[in-house]
Amino acid sequence: MEAYLLLISLLSMGSLSLSQECLRDKLENVDFPGTDLKFLYSPDAEHCQHLCTQHPGCLFFTFIRADWTKDDRHFYCYLKSTSSGQPKVRTPLMGVTSGFSLKSCSPDPQPCLPRVYQNVDFLGADYRTLFTADYEECQRVCTQDPSCQFFTFVNAVFSPEKIRYKCHLKFSWSLPRTLNVNRKDGVASGFSHLTQLTPYSDTACSVKLFPSTVIPGNPLETHPSGSPEHCLALCSAHPRCTYFSYYSNALSCHLKNNPDAMVMNAEVGVTSGIATHFCQQDTNWAKKTHEGVDFQGSDIRFELMDDAETCQKTCSGDGNCQFYTYVNDNFREPAFRRRCYIKRVITMPAPPKINKLANVVSGFHLRSCA
Asked: Residue 339 and residue 302: Cα distance in Å, rounded?
C-alpha cells in the first residue's frame, strides 16, 4: 500500500468510531463550511445525503438549493469529512441544507427516488431518446428499461417546438467499479459475494469470450478491472457497449461501441467478448479472489484479521462494502500486514450535471420503489 493510504485509513477509522449515531434529520439554512472531499451534482438535499452515504469517505454534506442567490452554484452537493466525524463549524446561510451520512442507519444500497423536478434539466448521459405524451410515460419507459437511471422530459410549451414531448433516457453506473487496480505482491482483492445484478429474465446469458483476441478501435470507455468476466459485466451494463477487449497485463477493460462491424485480431494477453442483454447475468466474477492485485482507494475503513477469506466474508456481511483488499503476512511493509480494507463507490443514479431549464421535467427510475 502507498504510505498516504495509512493516513486516510486511520482517519476513516477515527471518523467512523466517533460518528456511529444515525442522524437522518437535515438542517435548513445551515452551512458546514470547509473540509470538502469533492462536489457532485444533486437535485435535492435527500439525494445529496444518499450520495454522501455511498461515498466511502463522506461523513456529512452541504447542499446548495435552487433558491440560492449568491451565485450560480445551484444543485451543488459538497461531500465533507473530518477526523472527528463532526463539522468544524456550523454557520447560518440562506439557500443551503446540511446533514450527515446515513452509513450508520443501515441504508438501502439502491434507495427509492420517486420525486420529479419541474424546470430542472439532468444534463448529459443520454443514450436513447423517444417521444412520449407526458413525463409520467417517460418515467415509466425509464423504469422498464434496465439501462435507464434517470430522465429528462421536454414538455408541450418548450421552445424550440420541434423537440416538444421528447423523452431523454440517461445512464449512470449501478455496477461497482474499481477505480484503481494495480498488481502488488502480498495482497489479495475481491468483491462482495452479495453483489447482485438486476434480474432481467430467467434465461441465463449465453457468454461469448474470445481468448488471445483483440477487437481494435471504436473506443467508448476504459475502466480498471480484475478479470475478463468483470469486464463483460461492465460492457453488458452499459447501454452503448457492443463488445470489449480486456488486457490482462494492464488489468484494463476497454469498452467498444460499433453496432455495424466487429473485426477481431489475434493478440496474446487480451480477451475480448460480446455484451449480453436482457438475460440473467452470471455473477461468478464477484466470487473470485485476485491474488497479487490491489483494488486501490475507495476505502471506508480497515480492520485487522487473519486471512483473505475472513476479509471477504466481512465485506460480504457489510451492506456498505462492495469490494475489498487484504494485506497478507508476507507484505513488504509490516505495518500494513493483516489489514482488510473495506471499500465502495457510488452506484445510485447520479446525473453528471444539473441545470435550471424552463419547461422540462426530470426524475429517476422507480425500479427501487417496489
From this structure: 6
Q: Which runs of consecutive H residues, i.e. helices, occur in the chain?
A: 3-18, 45-54, 135-144, 228-237, 308-316
Task: Tell me the whole-structure pTM to 2 decimals.
Answer: 0.90
* Rounded distance between C-alpha atoms, residue 64 and residue 72, angstroms: 10
Please check whether residue 362 is in contact with residue 151, taking contact to mean a CB–CB distance below 8 angstroms: yes
Per-residue model confidence as pLDDT tens digits over 88-109: 999 999 999 999 999 989 888 8
Whole-number Å distance between alpha carbons of 152 and 144:
15
Q: Where are the beta strands (DSSP E) in 155-298?
A: 166-170, 181-191, 209-210, 213-214, 219-224, 243-247, 252-256, 265-266, 270-274, 290-295
Coil, strand or helix at 20: coil
CA distance to 148, 196, 275, 319, per residue, from 258 (Å) = 20, 28, 12, 37
Q: What are 236-276's pLDDT values in tens digits?
A: 999 999 999 999 999 999 999 999 999 999 999 999 999 99
Q: What is the DSSP letter of 336?
A: G
Bridge partners (DSSP) of residue 273 are 209, 244
* CA-to-CA dists, residue 7 to 33, 38, 299, angstroms: 23, 18, 11
